[in-house]
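> example.struct
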């Protein structure tokens, strides 16, 4: 229609979603401009490194990678890795998908809990963090005792996607409905394909284990949210 102006999705998104997406990009920008030594320090302590997670003192002596000093140090990368990315394409894609999935989820939660902000935003953040942690644990479990380093918010974003797919059939739908299982199977197939085409398409390997773990974690968290909604 003449005179109609459409806003870019990130501008049209709710403020908390926009802030989170911008934070991902800003974190990558800051790390990108750090000196090499500081960059190495950030990735060494913030990325998922299976060798460090599973390391024993004997293994550390041969690999040169020290095990985490304590449980807290081992847990930090499970969240911190979401704010580290392998390149600009990586972070921009994650930020774009974050906006696309988080926007409708937050709008739904605000309708369910009217006037109870920041409750709706905290639930959405809880969904993302649960999925990201589930993604990290899955990646580490499937890379025992060693494997590649993993970074990125795609585990949390995968959890948001699972929540969106669950809501397609209405809040009464469960995890084992035909529609959700078919959508989940399609997502698994896409991840398998990305293992082969990801390096050529994105210039980096794909942490499919994290995507699947985040998807499962997001689906389970969203099922709990739907119970809270009465679904």
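> example.seq
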């Amino acid at each position: 229609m003449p005179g109609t102006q459409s806003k870019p999705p990130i501008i049209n998104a709710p403020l908390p979603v926009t802030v989170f997406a911008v934070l991902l990009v800003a974190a990558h920008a800051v790390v990108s401009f750090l000196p090499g030594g500081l960059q190495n320090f950030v990735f060494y302590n913030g990325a998922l490194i299976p060798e460090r997670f599973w390391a024993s003192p004997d293994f550390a002596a041969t690999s040169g990678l020290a095990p985490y000093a304590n449980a807290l140090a081992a847990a930090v990368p499970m969240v911190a890795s979401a704010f580290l990315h392998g390149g600009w394409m990586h972070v921009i894609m994650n930020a774009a998908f974050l906006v696309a999935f988080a926007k409708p989820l937050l709008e739904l939660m605000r309708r369910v809990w009217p006037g109870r902000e920041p409750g709706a935003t905290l639930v959405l953040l809880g969904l993302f963090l649960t999925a990201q942690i589930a993604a990290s644990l899955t990646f580490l479990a499937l890379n025992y005792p060693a494997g590649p380093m993993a970074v990125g918010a795609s585990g949390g974003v995968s959890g948001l996607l699972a929540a969106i797919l669950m809501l397609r059939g209405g809040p009464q739908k469960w995890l084992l409905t035909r529609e959700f299982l078919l959508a989940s199977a399609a997502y698994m197939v896409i991840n398998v394909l990305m293992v082969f085409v990801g390096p050529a398409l994105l210039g980096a390997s794909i942490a499919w284990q994290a995507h699947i773990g985040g998807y499962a974690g997001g689906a389970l968290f969203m099922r709990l949210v739907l119970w809270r909604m009465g679904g």
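> remarks
The radius of gyration is 19 Å.
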